[in-house]
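User: Here's a protein and a ligand (xanthosine-5'-monophosphate). What would the complex look like?
Assistant: Let me lay out the input and then the predicted complex.
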Amino acid sequence: MQIKDLAFKQFINKSKIQEAVRGLAQQINTDYKEKTPVFLPILNGSFIFAADLIKQIEIPCKVSFVKVSSYAGTVSSGQLKTLIGMDASLFNQDVIVVEDIVDTGHTLQKIVEELKSLGTKSVEVVALLRKEHAREKMINVKYTGFEIENEFVVGYGLDYDGLGRNLKEIYKAAN
Ligand code: XMP
Ligand code: MG
């Protein structure tokens, strides 16, 4: 399969994805049965994973979304990342951050720090995919679907240059 200049091959099929998502939902249903968690999917990449996961949550829960947007800052040297959607409604809540993929962990570290500063009661992370050896930050991801090598993946919400989010399966760049 070709997306722009890159060739991709099938990596994780639909049934494997659904099996992993079901397992993650079951763990959360068990661990949070006395609580009312707030799911916090990080847009854009986690929208399909979050929908499939949350459909299988059988305890009372809430859902709120966060978008990480980058913009050129006033400081000439770099880009600042800002988070849209983090607000006071998260105070004293048991938050479950929903990520499509954790790579270096930088994005997640910023999100978790910001959530703690809002006075959340607890923060855990559920990630469909994790690139284990690319990890730079020691972020604790409590619920992980798949540990993968350091390869670029698309599909099931993940994109290459905006394309491929609609694919039902996960593909990796062919080399
Ligand atoms: P860090 O390094 O901060 O990166 O953990 C996490 C974010 O980077 C994106 N990302 C990917 N997106 N295929 C993608 O489509 C990939 O293989 C990939 N690796 C990282 C993603 O947005 C994630 O939230
Ligand atoms: Mg993402």
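Summary: The first helix runs from residue 14 to 31.
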